[in-house]
Design goal:
The protein is α+β, with helices and mostly antiparallel strands. The chain has one domain: NADH Oxidase, CATH 3.40.109. The protein contains six helices and four strands; from the N terminus they run ααβαβαβααβ. A four-stranded antiparallel sheet has the order 1-2-4-3. The longest helix has 18 residues. The two termini are about 25 Å apart.
Length: about 180
C-alpha cells in the first residue's frame, strides 16, 4: 500500500500523551508539512503558532476548558506538551477550509514521525478575546485572525486506538 494512504488509514486521534517534550526538529518538520497544505488561490493566508512553553500551554488549556464548559481539572489537550494553533486571515473566505487542510497535514506528519496528535476546537473563541489578540500582537502577528483549531502533539501514552469500522453507503458514483 502507498505510504501516504497507509498513514491516512492508520492515523488516529490520541487522548493520552506522555509529558516528554517533542524535539524542535520534529516540531519544525510538522509545521513545515502544514505550510505545504493546499490553499485557496495560493493565498497562504494561514499562520501557525507553536506553543511549547508549559506555562502558556497550561493557560491555554485552562481557557479552552472554560470555553468548553468542563470541570477545570480536565485537560482538553490530554497532556500533549506541544500545541500548534492554526489561525487564518479573518476576512479570507476560505479560512476554515485552508486552516483545516493545514491541521490535517500536520496530523499526518506527526503520525509519520511516530508522534500522536489530536485536533482540538475552540481556538476561534480564544482568539476573539482581547487577551489572545494581544498575544498575537506581542509575538509579531499583525492583522485580524480567526482561530481555526489546535493540533496537540506529543508522544503517545499507551496503544494507538483501533479504527472504527467504516460506515456503509457513503460513496456514490455518477457514471
Amino acid at each position: 500500500m502507498n505510504e501516504i494512504i497507509k498513514a491516512m488509514k492508520e492515523r488516529r486521534s490520541i487522548r493520552k500523551f506522555k509529558p516528554d517534550m517533542v524535539s524542535k526538529k520534529d516540531i519544525d518538520e510538522i509545521i513545515d508539512a502544514g505550510l505545504y497544505a493546499a490553499n485557496g488561490m495560493g493565498k497562504q493566508a494561514v499562520v501557525t503558532v507553536a506553543v511549547t512553553n508549559k506555562e502558556l500551554r497550561d493557560k491555554i488549556a485552562k481557557d479552552n476548558c472554560k470555553i468548553g464548559g468542563w470541570d477545570e481539572s480536565f485537560d482538553p489537550f490530554y497532556g500533549a506538551p506541544v500545541i500548534l494553533i492554526v489561525l487564518a486571515e479573518k476576512d479570507w473566505r476560505n479560512r476554515v477550509y485552508d486552516g483545516s487542510l493545514v491541521i490535517g497535514n500536520m496530523m499526518l506528519a506527526a503520525h509519520s514521525l511516530g508522534l500522536g496528535s489530536i485536533w482540538i476546537h475552540r481556538a476561534k473563541e480564544e482568539f476573539e478575546t482581547e487577551e489572545y489578540k494581544k498575544l498575537l500582537k506581542d509575538i509579531g502577528v499583525e492583522g485580524e485572525w480567526e482561530g481555526i483549531g489546535h493540533c496537540a502533539i506529543g508522544y503517545i501514552e499507551g496503544d494507538i486506538p483501533k479504527p472504527a469500522p467504516r460506515k456503509e453507503n457513503r460513496v456514490y458514483f455518477v457514471k
